[in-house]
Amino acid sequence: MKFLPIFLLTAVHASAAEAMERPAFLKAMGEFPAREAAAGVTGIWDKLVFRATDQPFLLVASVIFVLAIIHTFFAVPITRMAHHAQHEHEARLPAGSDKADKVSFKATMLHFLGEVEAIFGIWVLVLLGAMFAFYDLTTVKGYITGVNFTEPLFVVIIMALASTRPILRFAEGCLSFFARFGKQSPAAWWLSIMTVAPLLGSLITEPGAMTIAAMLLAKKFYQLKPSPKFAYATLGLLFVNISVGGVLTNFAAPPVIMVAKPWGLTT
Questions:
Q1: What residue spans define the domains of the chain?
Q2: pTM of this structure
Q3: Which residues contact 246 (CB under 8 A, 6 or more apart)?
Q4: 126/112 Cα distance (integer angstroms)
Q5: pLDDT tens digits for range 244-264
Q6: Are residues 157 and 150 in contact, defined by beta-carbon separation less than 8 angstroms?
């Protein structure tokens, strides 16, 4: 019975999605290939111009997406500005001020804008605002109810489970077997995490393997304060290795899942 509310919410969401009309720009996106072929549009730039002319909102949405990506690169400087603003605010306060007085609205807003995990959520609101300006509220509702959240929810659940203490201890115990060949030195742990942990992605999916590997690296490697170049190189190599491990089966990596059925991939 505890799962009944979830099923009811799913049913309500599905019925709402069916009731809402599909947004015009989504319909146009599905029709673009045939229309471009009929009009003789072949070049990439010509296709972009054709689509932007037909549906200007798609151009605006692309610009918003680019701005969101640029925003992520400024997350750290914005966070530094937030700390600086907070220190300036506290310096201006008289001695003995209450804790409530120490809260700076400017610093709080900058800190929020510097949160990496909140950036795309912020720009989603901008996207929905632009959608409302171009179309209407019905289009916004139709777009939201038509989005499938299965994959992101699955990733969140897998990462939450993979970060629990029993799973981490089990993974650490498994990797310690391989680290023993190098007398469990930092180099042995680094090599074990970077080679064996990504292979887990073929069984527990890429997000799960990434979570386990990242948390073990934080415990066994990053606590030793490696050089910034080595630290970033390790992170980049981990991304590559996780991707390699995820393609060993047809259910571990989202891109593979999308093409597994059309391409007839099997484990």
A1: 21-147, 155-263
A2: 0.60
A3: 198, 201, 202, 205, 206, 209, 252, 253, 256
A4: 16
A5: 877 777 666 766 766 666 777
A6: no
